[in-house]
Design a protein that fits this description.
single chain; alpha+beta; 3 helices; 21% helix
Length: 248
């Protein structure tokens, strides 16, 4: 009896071991992926929710910025306008700022104008419509911040911004020729890029496209102008406290 019991127990044990792999459920790839995502969220969820850039090396938030710039308005056939000016901005945070600025317009005669004046002495009297100065208030949005390597030796930081501007332009005109002088409304949009030279100084390149509405005389009661401006400026950050620690 004893000899017969031992083989029976061994056969039952082998049967149980052979059935285990067949009855076990193998998880699918989708279930394994869901479980991995739950494990990652449980361990790293709070870290993954942090913003990409935490402490900027060159912060602007809660700071004033003074920009000394020099611009060119190239799209007048008779005058090339040179525009030295100043802008003052307040940065509410790293993305939004409000900027007030103004510039003087110095008109330089183009080659076409000089040629026309040589050919016709009366042409000078017909070209007395000239911009003297402009001013504006702009909302600035800076959504892009980054850095790149310069010849693999120096890391340069920059940000790119967009703006909407509303202001005015002061121009002189000859009323006898239907050119009325005064201050007229102007709106514009712009795109710029800022290269940080240090925590306090940056270099700004900008393009602004404006629409100016002027009042004329006679049949030409409303005149529209579309001046474009390209400018280069040196900006200085004023105020604020530097943060110590790791910066991106």
């Amino acid at each position: 009896m004893r000899k017969r019991t031992i083989p029976m127990l061994a056969a039952a044990l082998l049967l149980a071991l052979g059935a285990t792999p067949a009855t076990a459920k193998t998880p699918t790839d989708e279930e394994m992926g869901d479980q991995l995502e739950r494990d990652l969220e449980k361990k790293w969820g709070r870290t993954r929710a942090v913003q990409v850039v935490v402490d900027r090396l060159y912060p602007k938030a809660s700071r004033f910025e003074l920009d000394v710039f020099f611009g060119v308005l190239p799209n007048d056939a008779f005058l090339l306008y040179l525009t030295p000016g100043l802008r003052m901005a307040w940065h509410f945070n790293e993305y939004w700022a409000l900027e007030l600025g103004g510039a003087y317009s110095l008109g330089v005669k183009t080659g076409l104008r000089r040629q026309l004046e040589q050919d016709d002495a009366l042409i000078q009297a017909r070209m007395r419509d000239q911009v003297i100065a402009r001013f504006g208030l702009a909302v600035v949005f800076s959504p892009i911040y980054g850095k790149f390597a310069w010849v693999n030796k120096k890391v340069a930081h920059f940000d790119m911004y967009f703006l909407f501007e509303a202001g005015g332009v002061y121009a002189e005109g000859e009323e006898s020729l239907g050119l009325k002088g005064g201050v007229w409304p102007e709106v514009g949009v712009g795109l710029g890029i800022r290269f940080f030279l240090s925590r306090l100084v940056s270099l700004r390149f900008e393009f602004r496209q404006r629409l100016a509405i002027r009042e004329g005389l006679g049949d030409d009661a409303i005149r529209l102008a579309f001046p474009s401006e390209i400018s280069l400026g040196l900006a200085f950050v004023l105020g604020g406290k530097s943060k110590k620690g790791k910066a991106e």
